[in-house]
Amino acid sequence: MKARSDNDLEELFTDPLLFTPIEHAVMTPQGFTYESMSIIQWLAQSKSDPFNRTQLSSEQLLPNHLFSQIKKLFRQPELDMNRLKDCLTCPLSGQLFKHPVVVKDGYTYERDFIEAYLLNHKHTPSGIRQTITGSQPFVAYPNRFVEAFLQHHFILELLKLSSPDKPLIPERDQTRLMKPVHTYLTKRACEDNYAGSIFGYSKWDKFAACAHLGRAMSGQISVQTFFADHHRKHRKALKQGRLREMAEPAIDYLTRKKVTSL
Fold first, then answer.
1. 179 and 158: one domain?
2. Residue 218: inside a domain, yes or no?
3. 2 assigned to some structural domain
4. N or C, fewer C-beta in 10 Å, the chain?
5. Residue 64 near residue 25 (C-beta atoms within 8 A)
6. Nearest CA to 257 among 233, 234, 235, 225?
7. Nearest 5°: phi and psi at 110?
8. Looking at the structure, do residues 83 and 131 belong to the same domain, yes or no?
9. Interval 140-171: pLDDT, tens
């Protein structure tokens, strides 16, 4: 597919201060993306955020790697829709972004999933140290570029056209069976970590297990891969506690699919 775009789509790649194309993308805590030199020059004079005038320093800026990746795709003669979908998919949840945020490594993740991940690790998935404790709360910048990009009519049309006509699992079944799981994730995101042997699985274990189930239901991984031995921990987490009742219909559906494929 040819890499074309509308004028208003091109505005998403434009620095809001100088109105020139962004080549070195950085973000402010408010979630807006700027050309690096543009915002640094602004801060040298005003020391405040251009959006709301709150105090801001250059040390608070984060790179927006996803912005750069997407812009690179649109510079190609042919737009690779598979790579674009990969860019717009959270590497932790396996689903298109709904609430994209950027953490210290400059990469974008789904908010609830990266928060659960950092509660269980002392670093981001790329290895940059970032922890969540009582004295170190969760710090993430909303990626407003990705939010606007996914809502653009041109991108919505591209994603619609690139979707398979006949997915392995009908969309209506995906929606029906995963709805209880999504409800569980929403509630679990508001709760504490509960990490430790008493509870068996941490918040991240449960989120990772739900992501594994979601990938199988959406066809990103095969049914055989879902039931593979090296994913046994995910399946055990899906069958523990409140999540068991929520995930059981989807697991039963995949079990029937596995039997009929033999």
1. no
2. yes
3. no
4. C
5. yes
6. 225
7. -70, 130
8. yes
9. 999 999 999 999 888 888 777 666 655 667 88
Tokens of 84: 């674009």
For residues 130 and 137, what is the distance between their CA atoms, to the nearest angstrom?
Answer: 10
According to the model, what pLDDT value does residue 219 have? 86
Of the pLDDT bands very low, low, confident and very high (cuts 50, 70, 90), residue 86 is very high
Name the token pair of 109.
């993740």
Query: What is the rounded CA–CA span in Å between residue 112 and residue 110?
Result: 6
Domain of 49 in residue numbering reads as 7-162
Please check whether residues 178 and 244 belong to one and the same domain: yes
- Note every long-range contact of 123-131, with CB atoms under 8 Å and residues 24 or more positions apart, other chains counting: 125/91, 125/92, 128/103, 128/104, 129/104, 130/103, 130/104, 130/105
Q: What torsion do the CA atoms of 143, 144, 150, 152 make, to the nearest 10 degrees? A: -160
Provide the whole-model pTM. 0.86
pLDDT (average), residues 96-105: 95
